[in-house]
Design brief:
single chain, alpha+beta, Beta-galactosidase, Chain A, domain 5, Immunoglobulin-like, 10-stranded antiparallel beta sheet, 8-stranded parallel barrel, 19% helix, globular, binds (2R,3S,4R,5S)-2-(hydroxymethyl)piperidine-3,4,5-triol
């Protein structure tokens, strides 16, 4: 049983082969955090870890003593104000205005398996033996509210899933003003904080800084997890590298407003937290009602950042993504957006599809502009019926023609939005999120539908189902192109307006769930103006996400590298697009565009009809190459080797599960001359296996053992070590490693 409870010491030990997590019921009946890290052996008690001392300017819980202060203690789910002045994990405002609470231990259960969270995305197990769950019940008798702290430890992952729920069993109504998913008090502050931040077109760039006294935090208050911040943070030791050292990561399985915060107190204790953003949030906890927080994942490694990322990759690929497409190779797609934008005819689309088929592409995706009066961005959103002037035989007809060519057919939707110039808005102007007597701001001429209301979600569901029932649709790109402003719902009273952002997300999840239940074989790709909602919440419904609207290969090095810290490559939509690049005009060879996009859910986003014969041949080769190695590109173990945030040469690699094959992506951004001889150490291979190394153009580099490649390294020296007249700027290559019989 990987969760034990010791009656004498009142300690819980959650463990598997890799990690341990220790909790203790403290003298005041609240829960203390004793340890999280590498697996440690059982021990009768850890009382020596309940650290208390008389300290000036500290307040104490028990009368006539100076030893028990919550301000001194590491806790599981702390409240503010009863001797702990740090930021709490939750706040409950009571009818008399007080926010002081005192939740005391009542009971606990330990069971095999893991329960689903109703209405929320979460990790899951298929067999009870895969995980063990601890649920601790605490109660505040003054406000008559129960708190349930839930912890699931996975047998085979160095990770713990956590969430919390509250139940009001009294007569009074309370207001939750904060309800985070995870709190972890760590005994020191010698950590670097890694966050993945950016903007549209440059999402999830790595930023690193050492923790300092006080607060550092990232958040989103935009109604989506956002391009700007990602609900994923790593704390690592300063000495930790990709290949060695301690690190821990927290990821929120949620797609809306969030907060991730580290507070370092005056005694160098680090309080790490993640959950729903308390800013602008409140929730009426009415009598007999339950509030469930989203889930957070906590992972640990003592073997470096690559190992930590691989834990998230494996868990998300196998036990967050689900259904038909889980762990399935992703179809190679052609998307018409950058090829045509709104300016398409059926003939044009069929011509693109025809070329795509010839090149070996498998899925044709029709992007924005096929519905209502949507010939430009100011009209049509909300009207999910086909524009017959553009597509005379409708979606059904087009899907059939595409299928007859031997391609799968995919379609774009933006279900959460409406244009004022639409039948939906004309009929239901009250369906949008706007504040009474205030101006409603637009984004791209569109308004956000009030998905906190069931009738709004029902309306969009019915419209989508009609299209999906008629035409045979294999794939949906679910877009979301603006954030929420003037947040207010006409359907809720004044004291529930703080719930709308979260209720909105619950509505989005509900629509996803209903569509997946009815169409379990459709592959969903989530998108939000590129990577504006790239999070573990979305991955539960849509197992791939459009990583960024920025398709420039050089920009993508940073974006995909940053994204890889928290998310697997099978989830990252990565397309080869035209050169000069649409977003920043950079001219790059087709070769590097393919070499970067291979490490993801691969596809094309350009007008294939405009390619030269030589380019057509190259694309055909890329597609064939991707098909040959797709399983490893998308599901191999991913290693970051050289960072685009640190130098001119970037590299990453994937290794097959059996370690018999590996592919190394090697990219030189700017050309150089008369340079050093270069080697690249390759981790992750089997030391004693013999690997044949070649380049995808057939160049044979010889045979080397895994041990040689890990310790001496792969020689990557190219013409630039001399008088270079061969390599160019934006130079990419893929090394192929295949096991040879010894
Ligand atoms: C934004 C997306 O990120 C693009 O890929 C494209 O689908 C457009 N929206 C369509 O409006």
């Amino acid at each position: 049983m990987p969760i034990t409870y010791n009656e004498q010491s009142r300690e819980f030990h959650l463990y598997n082969d890799q990690i341990s997590y220790l909790i203790k019921i403290l003298a005041n009946e609240q829960l203390g955090q004793l340890y999280f890290g590498k697996r440690i052996p059982e021990r009768a008690d850890h009382d020596y870890l309940v650290e208390n001392k008389y300290r000036p300017v500290t307040s104490y819980v028990f009368d006539d003593e100076y030893s028990f202060s919550l301000g001194n203690l590491k806790q599981e789910y702390p409240s503010y104000g009863t001797t702990d002045p740090r930021h709490p994990a939750f706040t409950i405002q009571q009818p008399n205005g007080s926010k002081i609470t005192d939740f005391k231990y009542v009971s606990h259960t330990i069971y095999a398996g893991k329960k689903a969270l109703v209405g929320l995305p979460a990790t899951y197990v298929e067999d009870k033996a895969e995980a063990t769950t601890l649920e601790v019940t605490l109660y505040d008798e003054v406000i008559e509210v129960y708190m349930y702290l839930k912890y699931t430890i996975f047998e085979k992952h160095a990770a713990i899933a956590r969430s919390v729920s509250f139940k009001n069993v009294g007569q009074a109504e309370h207001k939750l003003q904060a309800a985070l998913s995870l709190n972890l008090d760590l005994p020191d502050d010698d950590y670097e904080w890694l966050q993945f931040s950016g903007a549209w077109g440059r999402e999830r760039h790595l930023h690193k800084s050492h923790l300092r006294p006080g607060i550092q935090a990232i958040d989103s208050a935009r109604g989506a997890s956002s391009h700007m911040q990602n609900p994923f943070v790593i704390l690592k030791r300063p000495y930790t590298t990709e290949e060695m050292g301690e690190a821990l990561g927290i990821s929120l399985v949620y797609s809306g407003n969030f907060l991730a915060r580290a507070e370092v107190d005056e005694y160098a204790v680090t309080r790490l937290q993640i959950g729903l953003n308390p800013f602008q949030f409140s929730w009426c906890l009415k009598p007999n009602e339950i509030f469930q927080t989203p889930e957070a994942i906590l992972a640990y490694s003592d073997a470096g950042l690559n190992d930590l990322s691989q834990t998230f990759h494996r868990l998300f690929t196998t036990r967050l993504a689900r259904g038909y497409w889980r762990e399935r190779k992703r179809p190679i797609l052609i998307n018409n957006w950058e090829a045509t934008y709104f300016d398409f005819t059926e003939e044009k689309l069929l011509a693109i599809a025809k070329s795509a088929k010839k090149l070996g592409i498998e899925l044709f995706v029709l992007d924005d502009g096929w519905f209502g009066k949507r010939t430009k961005e100011n009209a049509g959103l909300g009207d999910w019926y086909v524009n017959h002037e553009r597509l005379k035989d409708g979606i059904t007809g087009l899907a059939k023609k595409i299928h007859d060519m031997g391609l799968m057919f995919g379609l774009w939707f933006e279900p959460e939005m409406v244009n004022k110039d639409s039948d939906l808005y004309r009929k239901h102007p009250d369906y949008i999120i706007e504040t009474p007597r205030r101006h409603a701001s637009h984004g791209r001429k569109q308004y956000v539908l009030d998905f906190s209301r069931k009738e709004v979600v029902d309306n969009i569901y019915e419209q989508m189902v009609k299209i999906l029932d008629e035409g045979e649709i294999d794939y949906i790109k679910w877009d979301m192109n603006r954030n929420i402003t003037e947040c207010y719902s006409n359907a809720y009273p004044a004291d529930q307006q703080g719930e709308i952002m979260h209720r909105y997300m619950l509505g989005v999840y509900d629509l996803y769930e209903r569509l997946l239940t009815r169409f379990p074989k459709i592959l969903f790709e989530s998108c939000a103006s590129g990577g504006g909602r790239f999070d573990a919440g979305m991955l539960y419904y849509a197992p791939q996400a459009w990583t960024s609207d920025d398709t420039d290969a050089i920009e993508r090095l940073k974006i995909q590298y940053g994204t890889s810290f928290g998310y697997p490559q099978s989830m990252m939509g990565a397309h080869v697009s035209a050169s000069p690049n649409e977003q920043l005009g950079r001219i790059t060879p087709l070769k590097i565009r393919g070499d970067v996009a291979f490490f993801g859910a691969f596809g094309y986003e350009l007008d294939l009809a405009t390619l030269s014969p030589a380019e057509m041949t190259e694309v055909k080769k890329q597609v064939a190459f991707m098909k040959k190695y797709r399983e490893i590109f998308q599901y191999g173990t991913f290693y970051r080797l050289k960072s685009p945030f640190e130098g001119n040469i970037v590299s990453w690699m994937v290794v097959s599960q059996d370690k018999n094959q590996a592919l190394v992506g090697y990219y030189k951004i700017l050309n150089d001359v008369n340079c050093e001889f270069r080697r690249l150490r390759l981790p992750g291979l089997a030391a004693t296996k013999n690997y044949h190394v070649s380049e995808e153009n057939g160049t044979d580099l010889g045979d080397f053992t895994g041990s040689e490649l890990a310790n001496i390294g792969l020689v990557t020296t190219d013409a630039s070590a001399g008088e270079n007249r061969e390599t160019t700027d934006f130079y990419g290559k893929i090394f192929i490693l295949e096991k040879r019989d010894n």
